[in-house]
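Please check these two lines:
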Amino acid sequence: MLGDILRIINEDGYISRFRLAGKLNISKGLVDEGINQLLRRGYLLADNTGEGCSAFCTRCPFANNCGRKIVKVFRISAKGSGFLKRFEKQPSG
């Protein structure tokens, strides 16, 4: 499940936890737990967008969705990218 969460975040970029749960056919609570585990392991990094954000809106990938409201977003760390490469090489099934 962790690899699937990471893969979808990598593919979709901006995705809500609710939509992620739907894609994986699991509860939002399981998605939340998976994201927390990925954060603890250092595979995901958390950022806040919106007011006080250090990014300039014109270069921000979330500018169309932000509205300068605080939104928690996640990005895949270098460690997470390595995990994702290993995960994608595994045979499915």
